[in-house]
Design brief:
By secondary structure, the chain is of the alpha/beta class. Helices cover 29% and strands 26% of the residues. The strands form two sheets. It has a seven-stranded mixed beta sheet with strand order 5-4-1-6-8-7-9, with helices on both faces. A hairpin with a 2-residue loop joins strand 7 and strand 8.
Length: 188
């Protein structure tokens, strides 16, 4: 178990929503933008730092600031998810975080209870990577020890931390809880 005060949350919210056709992070889900649904359980964890990586002039960034997130701007989100990950990890490292919880802005159904289990499952020696699992496959949200920050900063393209997650301790969640929004029909 890790003390939440030592954890930096990284909400990756700089994507271009190409498959969706418009900014999916702003699409209302029960009257609230998708990204704010994704942010709410992260805030409830009471971690030391809340960091959102957004593209320049992101319309969701001011709302995230109001919720307590520090915004890190990704000036070139076309470089892929890994560019946002690297920027967020750089900031977490500069702040002195012991671990980083990586979450995606298009995953609005993750519960606070699942995130708490991720933190409770973490151990620097025996479980330095703890990832969510849908049908036995590791995925975000995922928690990484600071010893892995260098590897996270150097990932490329849309792969993000996928190669590291293969070695993670997995925490199963309801498959619906780990659903992400990629296409308009996913909102339904």
């Amino acid at each position: 178990m890790i003390d939440p005060a030592q954890v930096a949350v990284l909400l990756l919210a700089a994507g271009r929503s190409e498959r969706f056709g418009s900014d999916k992070l702003l699409v209302p889900l029960d009257g609230v933008p998708v990204a704010l649904h994704a942010a709410a359980p992260l805030i409830a964890l009471g971690t030391g730092w809340l960091i959102a990586v957004c593209r320049e002039a992101s319309p969701i960034a001011p709302e995230l600031v109001e919720l307590g997130f520090e915004i890190v701007v990704n000036p070139d989100p076309a470089r892929g998810l890994s560019s946002s990950l690297a920027l967020g990890i750089e900031r977490a490292e500069a702040l002195g975080a012991t671990a980083a919880l990586i979450a995606l802005g298009d995953m609005p159904f993750v519960s606070p209870a699942h995130l708490a289990v991720l933190l409770a499952s973490f151990d620097r020696a025996s479980a330095p990577i703890v990832a969510s699992a849908r049908h036995g496959v590791g995925m975000p949200p995922a928690l990484f020890d600071k010893a892995l920050f260098g590897d996270l900063r150097t990932s490329e393209g849309e792969q993000g931390a996928r190669s590291l997650i293969r070695a993670a301790k997995l925490v199963a969640a309801d498959p619906d809880e780990l659903a992400d929004i990629d296409r308009p029909e996913d909102i339904r």
